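R.M. (postdoc): so does anyone remember the format we settled on? I'll just put the structure tokens first.
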């Protein structure tokens, strides 16, 4: 196969696009897909400060790097979850990556807020992944809001978005389907949330990291075993193998044809948010979910 753009030998085959690229042209393609997502969904401009949620995996490191390449004003934030034997290693990896490339990265330690994830796991009966996700989303948003960033960018790629859409469709979850998309506008103490990698697959992000020399963290979270999300990705991956482009069509057609309907329904069904009595951030009750979890951890430790 020859590169679609320059005619040299292609090293990256992209069946969903019916094409292939040499390394240099693939990098241009990757940057172009990010810029297309940013422009199409009105994510942010060159004059706005953007905070990137950095986990240490390939997607978040690639996102931080490509946004800097494209000239955006970006900084990173990493959440140290306080998991012994894991969190300190990931944190060191992220800090080392950013130090080598001259990127600014901030670190939030959940243990300082009474929410070290091992303590949370011992104190709650719900699946720890969902609780951990709630805590991380709270702190990503809170840090972005309190430090004046216009938008919070996450490394969710097309595989992530399609798998989430598939899961929400299986449940016909109106609220989540109404919120699903590459960009959510700012509202009150919620900053704008954006996903600039929404047009790129995990394979494409991995290839970008390889050609850019970005070494990323590979080890999974010790608590992540058995997550249903992985199975949904695998199902859609099998579909993509037999019908290249199906994943993108599933996601893009939802955004164009179905999301407006679910968005309107979700607005009718969603109760008004009020400031949490403890932290002051938006909550559906008197006390937000994160503050309730913190209280449970404190009570458990006291006992």
């Amino acid at each position: 196969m020859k590169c679609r753009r320059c005619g040299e030998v292609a090293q990256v085959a992209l069946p969903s696009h019916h094409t292939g690229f040499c390394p240099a042209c693939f990098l241009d393609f990757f940057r172009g897909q990010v810029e297309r997502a940013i422009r199409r969904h009105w994510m942010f401009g060159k004059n706005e400060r953007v905070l990137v949620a950095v986990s240490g995996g390939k997607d978040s490191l690639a996102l931080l790097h490509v946004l800097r390449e494209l000239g955006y004003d970006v900084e990173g934030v990493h959440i140290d979850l306080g998991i012994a034997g894991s969190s300190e290693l990931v944190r060191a990896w992220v800090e080392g990556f950013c130090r080598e490339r001259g990127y600014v990265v901030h670190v939030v330690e959940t243990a300082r807020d009474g929410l070290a994830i091992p303590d949370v796991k011992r104190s709650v009966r719900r699946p720890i992944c969902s609780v951990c996700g709630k805590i991380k989303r709270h702190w990503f948003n809170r840090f972005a809001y309190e430090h004046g960033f216009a938008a919070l960018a996450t490394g969710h790629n097309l595989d992530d978005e399609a798998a989430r859409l598939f899961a929400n469709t299986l449940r016909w979850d109106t609220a989540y389907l109404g919120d699903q998309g590459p960009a959510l506008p700012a509202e009150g103490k919620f900053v704008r949330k954006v996903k600039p990698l929404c047009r790129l697959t995990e394979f494409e992000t991995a290839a970008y990291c390889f050609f850019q020399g970005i070494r990323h963290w590979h080890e999974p979270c010790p608590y992540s075993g058995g997550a249903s999300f992985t199975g949904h990705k695998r199902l859609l991956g099998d579909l993509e193998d037999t019908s290249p482009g199906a994943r993108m069509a599933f996601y893009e057609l939802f955004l164009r044809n179905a999301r407006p309907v679910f968005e309107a329904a979700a607005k009718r069904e969603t109760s008004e948010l009020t400031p949490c009595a403890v932290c002051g951030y938006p909550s559906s009750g008197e006390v937000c979910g994160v503050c309730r979890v913190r209280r449970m951890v404190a009570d458990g430790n006291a006992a």
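R.M.: ...and that's the designed sequence above, right after the tokens. Also worth knowing: The mean pLDDT is 93. Strands lie at 12-14, 19-21, 49-53, 73-80, 105-109, 151-153, 183-184, 192-194, 274-275, 282-283.
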